[in-house]
Amino acid sequence: MSNKVSNFYKNIGIWISEKKSHKLNWKELIKTCNSHGYNLIKLDLERPLEDQVECHVFLHKLTDIIAAADQGDPKASCIIGNVEQYLSNHPNITVIDPLENVRILLNRYYYYSILQEETLFQSQGIYTPTFAEFTTCNIEQNIEIMRHRGVTFPVICKPTIAHGSKSAHEMILIFNEKGLNVCRPPCVVQSFVNHNAVLHKVFLIGNRYHICERPSLKNFYSSEDLDPIFYSTGEVCKADSQSTLSILDPHDKADIKMTLNENKIKSIIRLLRKKIGLLLAGFDVVIDNNTGDHAVIDINVFPSYDSFPNFFDHLLDCIDEHVNNMSNGDSCNNKSSSKADYFCNHRPNGLINVGLDPLGVIGMNINN
Ligand SMILES: Nc1ncnc2c1ncn2[C@@H]1O[C@H](COP(=O)(O)OP(=O)(O)OP(=O)(O)O)[C@@H](O)[C@H]1O
Ligand SMILES: O=P(O)(O)O[C@H]1[C@H](OP(=O)(O)O)[C@@H](OP(=O)(O)O)[C@@H](O)[C@@H](O)[C@@H]1OP(=O)(O)O
Ligand SMILES: [Mg+2]
Ligand SMILES: [Mg+2]
User: Fold this and answer.
1) What is the CATH number of domain 1-90?
2) Average pLDDT for 192-205
3) Does the reported pTM lie above 0.80?
4) CA of 105 to the centre of ligand 4 (A)
5) Which ligand is the nearest neighbour of the Cα of 233?
6) What digits encode the pLDDT tens for the residues 330-355?
7) Interval between CA 171 and ligand 1 midpoint (Å)
């Protein structure tokens, strides 16, 4: 990575996985950092951080390593221990995002529980589909757990660990009790919501957001005859996915298209800012084709930001705001800014609304 380090600039130390690194346009990111008065320095987690650069900002996606460390991997534990030590030795570094906040999203059961606890959601037509966690392969017990928690077939079985390995995105659609034998604990089963194969992805950078549509699963119904369907999220829900699982059955095609309600999206964002506190996050919403209610089915740390217009500029603006908050004595990195300047960029049906001003486009006053 060629990066002229200027002494007049502040330093952003960055660490992301090789996979993410390959997709990143480093040249463009470095240019944007420089134009905002920052150097960008790639950190090597195998060497002492103290010996590398004086970081003003620590920008990372350490989900894979945190998840491995939390599962007892010694090398990962050592790396995360060193990072945590370094950050605690330098409390003035702006961390995007704090490791404790990131940990919340590593466990699906945990973050679904946070969503479910939100009592205000119900009256606003927002919910997270009922879910339960399996920690054993005992089918009788698992059926009872599902009943107790009101989880109904079909269900999607998802690994409890939400990030960190390819297997975190290996899903199973299960139609009946006998299909439950394919579940591999620890996993979460979640009631399936029919949504006409349209997924709405919301990407967040602090108070800014961008929504895009993606393909998703067609409508399914519980059945005693159907075998489980295995799929990986990447095969079905990427912008260019063309899975047969997304092709609507003829009788579903007549359905009226449900429209996304942006006020609901803002309510969800408010809750996430308050309860999870990440600047860099994304979440997935499907619209129930019977009720129009909005179901939050997934929350992700530092997602792809695929199609987010001027992503780097917004990222640097957001970093800048937080660095300034820190120097103004706000020691809590991710406290949401009291000035609620939501920047909306909505892309329905592939069209992009660009050139919106970050201040007052929506005129939302969101008090966290
Ligand atoms: N409760 C549900 N009802 C209907 N469809 C669902 C439900 N949960 C998941 N899906 C479908 O399965 C896909 C994968 O689920 P989910 O988003 O939870 O997995 P993920 O691997 O964490 O995704 P990401 O790549 O966004 O991190 C969703 O994008 C959606 O198409
Ligand atoms: O970009 P990364 O390598 O971090 O991978 C992320 C992936 O982006 P990619 O599929 O385009 O690579 C994201 O997809 P979108 O929802 O944003 O489409 C989402 O699946 C995250 O959960 C993944 O993070 P992980 O769970 O693997 O940590
Ligand atoms: Mg998802
Ligand atoms: Mg996810």
Assistant:
1) 3.40.50.11370
2) 97
3) yes
4) 9
5) 1
6) 654 444 333 223 444 443 333 222 23
7) 8
